[in-house]
Amino acid sequence: QVQLVESGGGSVRSGGSLRLSCAASGYTFSRYAVGWFRQAPGKEREVVACILSDRNTMYADSMKGRFTISQDNAKNTLYLQMNSLKPEDTAMYYCAAGRVLYIAPVCPKDYEYWGRGTQVTVSS
Fold first, then answer.
1. Computed over its alpha carbons, how large is the radius of gyration of the chain?
2. Which class for 114: exposed (0-12), middle (13-18), buried (19 or more C-beta within 10 A)?
3. How many CB atoms neighbour CB 61 within 10 A?
């Protein structure tokens, strides 16, 4: 049984930083595409960032230069380093993974496995 468990969320002031982690069990991070998403109240879920099968990383425009996605295969963990946080970054953040090799100029939106999310709240 695959489980993805996010952690690292919390409340920070505008301009602050957080590092989210996504620990996997029953699943091995390798060359499959993986990603982070977020969903704010009353809004649709949106792509934050992804790592593609060729190991390229991609980000939503509003996160470029502020967020960094990475994975540690030895720890079987996916990370999202978030810097220069803004109030509009407030949302529930989810990690996602699958067993699909994916190379494209955009992040995939459909994954087989999803975590339950970790809340990020940024105050002004």
1. 13
2. middle
3. 6
* Type of residue numbered 93: Y
Contact assessment for residue 96 and residue 34, using Cβ atoms and an 8 Å cutoff: yes
Q: Calculate the alpha carbon distances from 96 to 13, 15, 36, 85, 109 in Å.
A: 27, 26, 6, 22, 9
Q: What is the pLDDT of residues 6-18, one digit of tens each?
A: 999 999 999 999 9
Distance CA 82, CA 15 (A): 10
CA distance 109 to 107: 6
Residue type present at position 98: G
| Residue reference for tokens 């190379």 | 103
Give the pLDDT confidence of 44-72 residue by residue, as tens digits. Answer: 999 999 999 999 999 999 999 999 999 99
Cα 86 to the center of its chain, rounded Å:
17
* Measured distance CA(124)–CA(108) in Å, rounded: 32
Helix, coil or strand: residue 84:
coil
